[in-house]
Prior knowledge:
- This protein has 338 residues and is of the alpha+beta class.
- It has helices spanning 10-19, 27-47, 51-54, 71-83, 150-153, 222-232, 250-260, 279-292, 323-337; strands at residues 89-94, 101-102, 112-120, 131-139, 162-168, 172-177, 182-188, 193-198, 209-211, 243-244, 263-266, 296-298, 318-321.
- It has two domains: 10-198, Fructose-1,6-Bisphosphatase, subunit A, domain 1 (Fructose-1,6-Bisphosphatase, Chain A, domain 1, 2-Layer Sandwich); 209-337, 3-Layer(aba) Sandwich (D-Maltodextrin-Binding Protein, domain 2).
- It has nine helices and 13 strands.
Amino acid sequence: MRKPQRFMTLHRHILEGERKHPEATGELSALLADLALAAKVISLEVNKAGLIDILGFTGDVNVQGEQVKKLDVYAHETIVSAMDHGGHLCLMASEEEEDIIHIPKHHRIGKYVLLFDPLDGSSNIDANVSIGTIFSIFKRKSPDGTPGTIEDALQKGVEQVAAGYIVYGSSTIFVYTTGEGVHAFTLDPAVGEFLLSHENIRIPEKAHIYSINEGNYKYWHQGLKNYIKHIQDADNRGEKPYSARYIGSMVADIHRNLLYGGIFIYPADKRNPNGKLRLLYECNPMAFIVESAGGRAIDGKRRILEIQPEKLHQRVPIYIGSKEAVDMVERFLQEAEE
Length: 338
Ligand code: AHM
Ligand code: MG
């Protein structure tokens, strides 16, 4: 990782990236800038989460007589209203909404598609644990100028033109890639800007952290049980032992593993043959980011990015992180099947 230049804002970084591509129209940059604004608004609200009770916002109506929204609904609505009139999108889809979201009439219809999970890990909010927004951007397949169709949303992850996440943690960090390096920007709340804090992140090839909900052990398939046992025994083989770290908030778990090296697993098990996490809103964007940082992401057999989505809210198992670790779990899963 190169030491960042000082005072490189997210906006400037995106523009400089775009200048390397003379064919670029500036639309993707503008779209990412709109998303960064939505992230700042959500971050402000996340930081106030614990105050709702203290300030007497009981029930559903706050002191101004406004409806108090659940934070995930608030995040969803913030992103939709920040993005639907920019003129860059032909449609959106959100984990919080069943169907695709069309661009309202009278707004320009653009050439990009935005898929997002507005507030992932929202069960952690009340405990002040990190949560995040995840996004994925594609170019449309349908003809320009027409309203987008579901086929625009159901593209393989390899077609992504950009993806990223925002983690609302001890600080707010915006991480994005256009496939050429993964970069992180930390929000300076005083100036209200995301400033470059980690340029060209490379995930360490070896993992020393594993992240999985071990409470589900009895439902796991044998290959996964064997793999977890194997890494827990690392020190018996004279190797550095693994640490278990599981926040239960995918954005925070993957962000940490991206920086320190690790594997995050949400497997298929005997109860849930497709795991829990969503291909379009969680797994594809994270797979694009982690692969762009030198890691791997599979569903056990296939590369996540090569799965053809069949429906908007499709779930897939995921094994994602440091390359060597994903290679190894893949071998254990295969061996148990033979
Ligand atoms: P959500 O989209 O309802 O917030 O659920 C997704 C979250 C992920 O952030 C996290 O990795 C996972 O659910 C944790 O699930 P579990 O509690 O089953 O371990
Ligand atoms: Mg989610």
